[in-house]
């Protein structure tokens, strides 16, 4: 299905070319985790969003330099100092802390789990969530590939409701999610985050 | 390569049939994590090892019953009470908390990381580990698919040394690993764990 294709997490490595916009911005924020650099935020309509970068992507290389062991300021410096602002080559590993799980709605439209905002808090017995081994204390980052980070409970519910019979969730253990969004301004996540449906 | 094939983590669901041995044992231990049941230990030469079960596999179903929300005692009860000890059907999700990363040795045979026992503690710049985005605070569970849990530093070094030019590591964030092996008797892990090379 299209949702499945949009949600696909490969854990593979690829090269992505981004450019700076008129204000010299690429439209993403980094966070250092376990000596790696991760995408913590992608702004709606930004060059980063258009290049297909997503929350949780690991940045391996910026403009030819490995970023291992850098803090997020040093990694941002590499973006700032890049030779050609119209063409910054990034080495990306596709969302290493994430995985997908595909569920099917029952005849009442239920998937079989409760969420509080975008965190999974309970699994109901004898449901698609139970049969497929969905876990609590995980955050839902995407629904059929569409980012739901920062959405309120009702909004996440709405996305799930309108998602069709087959729903692929992209999840991350909450313990890692909490670390990844630490120090983030919540209004930024809520208002400016890219929530568009990705092209396949 | 064969190592890559042996190490493959699919996150997919499959059915596995196990039987009890002469002593009524299957040869594995469970742990409840996030309302799911996980394989915490597989004994060498046991029915569980022969059936291809591994540390970190999620048990979805035992003998037709979903295990969501059970504690490990209740899950073990389902194994004990099963109708036919010669044929217990398990629904398994392939190691949801794990991922693989493939590295290549340089001309000196180095991969580019330091480990303490089976935990990754440092990444060297300009190495295969750095280029591929290996992370610290992760545990190595398998090397080319071979379980290294409970091995001491030297033994892990030996496995890495003899692993050939291309080495696929199966890793898990240490924060999740620590939770998974909590309450485990270390001598059990060390002495009786299945460390055999898996068949593909």
UniProtKB/TrEMBL annotation, chains A, B:
Residues covered by the PDZ domain: 15-79, 100-175
Residues in coiled coil: none
Keyword Lyase assigned: no
GO CC terms in record: cytoplasm; plasma membrane
Keywords: Repeat
Lineage top rank: taxon: Eukaryota
This protein's name: PDZ domain-containing protein
